[in-house]
Each structure stands twice: as structure tokens, then as C-alpha cells.
Write a structure and sequence with these properties.
By secondary structure, this protein is mainly alpha-helical. It has seven helices and two strands; from the N terminus they run H-H-H-H-H-E-H-E-H. Keywords: Signal.
Length: 224
């Protein structure tokens, strides 16, 4: 269940069960994808703003180490597509089910951002830190939305299966939040990318529809 929830958050796709096969054995399929190295990705004006020890806030120490300086939203990460023996395919499911699962993960993110464990006294209680971490999280989702709308031609549209597999590490067996090292950095996101197929993007018609979608989203977000 946890894996399914995470996939919905990262890719909004319902996935079939798959088994990996080494990329070298499926060279013909691998050529259909672009494994974009970091230097070829489009910069989106992140700039080299540092948040490590921003305003001398101790809880932000080492913040930039996760994604790397100038990579606040993670959009400069390299991408390596994992080719599957059985391809992953998107599926249409009732929209409310997707919204429910995204709402669950939304509240988990809030809980994690305000979590304090009495056993170790490790806290994320500084409001400025909460704000910056949440902005980074939201920024990564904005990058994915741009990818879905094909605003970034150098990026594949998918999710990192290795990062998804770590979702169960968020909680301990008693239901409390885990605060242990999950063993990866933000720069690792995208190194094991699964790119589902089966979407209905039309290269001729879909780009023309995006401005209307963006306008409707802005209107819905700002209505009183």
C-alpha cells in the first residue's frame, strides 16, 4: 500500500507489477529513451542561493548538501531510465481515489515537518526551516508538473523506483515517524527512473491545451 501511495504522489500513475532487466540486455528499447546527463538539463533560474545556515539558523546546517547548491528543486538531477522486462503502464482510475491518496501523503508531509520525537529530542520546530523544506518539496512537484506538460524537453516523465521502495522506512512499527538515515541524497533521485507508457499526450494538440489548463488552475487557486 505504501508503495502505491508514493507512486501516486510522484507520478500520478497506477502501476503494474514489473521485473527489472539490465539495460545492456535491452539496448533496442533503451535507445527509445533519453538518459539525460545533468549538463544537458534546462536550468530554470534556481540560481546559486544557499540555505545552509541561512540567517544563522542551526537546523538548516547542510541543507544544500541534499540536492546540491543551485539545485533547490532537484530539476538538475541526471536521469537514468531503467528498462523493464514487463513495461509499466499508466491506468485510468477514479479521480477521487487518486485525490484521497495524495491527501494522505500531503498530511504525512505535514506531520513530518512538524514532528518532534521525545526519545531523541530531534526536532524540526523552527518555522523558517519548515517553510524552506516545504518550498523545496512543493518545488519538486512543480518540476514534475512541468514535465507532465512537456515544458522541459530534456527530462523524462517518471519516478525513481529505488526512492519509492524506501517509503516504508518513514514509519516505525509502532506508527511513529522514523528519524533514521534512509541512505540516499536528493542527487540520487532520478538514477533509477521508471517511465510508464500509455498516456494520451498528442504532440499536435496537447501543447495547445496547456495554457487553458494553467489559466484554470490559477483561477481556481486564487478565487475568493
Amino acid at each position: 500500500m505504501f508503495t502505491t501511495l508514493t507512486v501516486l504522489l510522484v507520478s500520478l500513475l497506477s502501476l503494474t507489477s514489473v521485473f527489472a532487466k539490465p539495460l545492456s540486455f535491452r539496448r533496442d528499447q533503451a535507445l527509445a529513451f533519453r538518459n539525460a546527463p545533468a549538463p544537458t538539463l534546462q536550468a530554470r533560474g534556481n540560481g546559486n542561493v544557499s540555505f545552509s545556515n541561512f540567517n544563522n539558523i542551526a537546523s538548516l546546517q547542510g541543507f544544500d548538501d541534499f540536492n546540491g547548491l543551485g539545485n533547490f528543486r532537484g530539476d538538475r538531477n541526471s536521469q537514468t531510465v531503467v528498462v523493464k522486462e514487463t513495461q509499466v503502464q499508466c491506468q485510468d482510475i477514479q479521480i477521487e481515489f487518486v485525490q484521497q491518496r495524495l491527501a494522505i501523503l500531503q498530511e504525512v508531509a505535514k506531520r513530518h515537518n512538524n514532528h518532534r520525537t521525545s526519545q531523541t529530542f530531534r526536532v524540526i520546530c523552527n518555522v523558517e526551516t519548515q517553510t524552506i523544506v516545504l518550498a523545496q518539496h512543493n518545488g519538486a512537484l512543480e518540476v514534475f508538473r512541468d514535465d507532465i506538460q512537456r515544458k522541459t524537453v530534456a527530462r523524462q516523465i517518471g519516478f525513481d523506483e529505488q526512492i519509492v521502495s524506501k517509503f516504508s522506512q518513514i514509519f516505525q512499527q509502532d506508527g511513529s515517524l522514523s528519524v533514521v538515515d534512509a541512505g540516499f541524497s536528493g542527487k540520487d533521485v532520478g538514477k533509477n527512473l521508471i517511465v510508464p507508457f500509455g498516456n494520451d499526450w498528442d504532440n499536435d494538440k496537447s501543447p495547445q491545451r496547456q495554457p487553458a489548463i494553467d489559466a484554470a488552475i490559477i483561477a481556481a487557486s486564487t478565487q475568493q
